[in-house]
Input
Amino acid sequence: MLNKTWFTPVFSTLIENRTEGLAVVGAGAVLVGLHLAGLPGWACPFKSLFGIPCPGCGLTAATDQLLHGQFVASFHTHAFAPIFFVAYLVMATVLFLPEKQRKSTVTWIAEFERHTGITALILAALLIYWVVRLAGLV
Output
């Protein structure tokens, strides 16, 4: 059986703190907006420091492709783009709900995370995908 730490809510905690959530949503909007406009975003600090792409490298380009209906290209650029895009939409939507609905939605998401460990499983899968990409297998 998985360690219960895997079932600790993470995503809902980020949404619960409106300031942190808005910072993530705002940064994501700016980065994708710059890319959609053909302007340079900021360089990946992980890649700049270590010389290899981080687990999220390619997500902005893949999201751009997703928004342009290029689903296969998006998947080939970064297979996790649809998952992160849906998470982004959920986060943005929940952050702008009235307080009562936001709290009940955050509670529901936290319970879902506690019962499924979905956030930890997705992040573990992302790390496995990253290693496979680094090995040149995809």
Summary: The chain has eight helices and no strands. Residues 18-36 form the longest helix (19 residues). The chain has one domain: 6-134. The mean pLDDT is 92.
